[in-house]
Amino acid sequence: METSLKRAPDKAETRHKPSRPCTREDFDRVRRVLGRKVLFTQGDIAISYGALLAGCRFFAGYPITPATETAEIMSRLLPRVGGTCIQMEDEIASMGAIIGASWTGARSMTATSGPGFSLMQENIGYAAMTETPCVVVDVQRSGPSTGQPTEGAQGDIMQAKWGSHGDYELIALSPSTVQECLDLTIKAFNLADTYRVPVILLTDGIIGHMREKITLPEFEEVTITPRKQPSTSKEAYLPFADDGTQIPEMSTFGTGFRTYITGLTHTENGYPSTDNQPNHDRLIRRLCDKIRNNRDKIVEVERDYEDASRGETIGIVSYGATSRSVDYAVKALRQSGIKIDHLRIITNWPFPENEVVELAERVGRIVVPELNLGQACHSVREAVAGRCEITPLWKIGGEMHTPQEIMDAVRGNSD
Amino acid sequence: MFRQARHIREKYLEANMWPSIFCQGCGIGTVLNCALRAIDKIGLDIDRTVFVSGIGCSSRIPGYIDADGLHTTHGRAIAFATGIKLANPDLTVIVFTGDGDLAGIGGNHFIHAARRNVDLTVICVNNYNYGMTGAQVSPTTPIGGITMTSPYGNVESPFDLSALAIGAGAPYVSRWTTAHPHETIMAVKKAIEKPGFAFVEVLASCPIGYGRKNDLKHGKDYLEWLKRNTIGRTRYTAMTPEEVLACDKIVIGELRNEPKPEFTAEWTRLVDGLFVE
B96 — contact with chain A (CB < 8 Å)? Predict the structure, then answer.
């Protein structure tokens, strides 16, 4: 039985080209689609805008509160700029689809919240093992399990790093403002392509649903870091060879490099080698070291420090939504004469160890407010290693810390 | 015949990967052979073709082909393949999977891809058990089948994978066996040429896994069993209702081939209508 169905329109003429590298023309098109330069919008939507400006042309997702708006905006705007947006059957499939898309050369992204993030973990490990660049947005909500779907939380900090089995490293970023949701999404795509890792944008229901003013960047203000393409002939290309940078050159499916990708332990040529201990050791150490050895280049923090001698000052380490209450508390505390050093973590993973050590050597005590029952404070404690005291300040249930709660924790032992 | 075998080997197979991991009498080699011959008949550009698989014996097939291949996580091959096809519709995407990978852990992706009708070719090597892990019961193990996790005989009803694909909306569905290589080649050829979700189920011998517990220890016996226990669709549809009731054989042949709007073509059309110049 012959079919009368027509194939897709002539491929050369179609505007649907998700895997094509993005040019200035594409950036300007996104700006035209987004309209005004200054907007009043929410975090979830700013993430979509950031992704489009970064050249993301493939989105796969599954509805989940409080991340759904990201998918809604992508479904509305991606067809207008030549991309693909698909609602998959679950978060496992969404994660699989963005990895597949990435190997065609597309910048790809998914967005979810806790339960979906849990489902994605096996494929996030696959992306780490196969060194597939992709961006995963986790708009955190209160857990465990279904928890409080509409309430923000910071409960996935540890899962973001340790969620999949085995040893691997990835990058996770925490925005504190709606503008930063946009800026860090662009950065996330660049880091993913530079280091060939999945990058997690760890925001939460508070920032995701909060509306603030944002300013869209001009083309000149945005850096787009392309993937390192194969520099050898097709015949000589080894997809997992270390060229000295620990980050292999990445081929694109359909370009004749005949690349085989597997989640099994593989050799430089990509083929499985599962019973060779030195080979496994070399591969996994490289996957970890390419991030660990570039920690200083990857890590971004914001310091708001006093000019004071050690012992008189109290330190605060915060990230994400919590930093907003901290900023307010810091101002009020300084007005009342208390010296405060505030370290805002933007890169949760790799953890800014050196920066926390630097703070610990300046202060007598560090307060760590978090919307969980103790996650980043473990990393802080490990970095501080007894250099000063640590006061964790945990809060769960869906409400942010009030500035007063942070001020009380700072004053607690300082009086 | 031999010259053609050499041509297929030299043109398509990955030399570094041999010998294969497959057991003696395994049907997977036949499926690989049939698929490559179908590809050769079409004259498919192998550099514009991506082979995707999940986990299991049959999911090792892409590793033996000198082409782009994505050996993914268990059950998720179709989800990854969907991403590849929708990000670059110019590529031909072929999925190799098994009964456990496709209908056990990956069942949800299977039915949704069939419903969505993305232009993929899915070739399922159905050998009635989880072979890689040492012959455990699968979603297609027949009632009474002995496996390592159904030691007293399987009491669960099995899936009919082709019926499942048809029910989920796949526009092209064929079922053959490794005892019918020529028919399998033609079915794979039509599946690849079909613009839409095309499903080819190949009942395959597994003498070392499933066979050794079920009186099918030898590859040859297995092939004879496959021939004996299957009936062509044309013969089946010509049967009287009484004969149909009495027939306990598996129906093979082209079970569905109908037109249906294909996802990537529809999406491309949508984009071309909405694109902001």
Answer: no
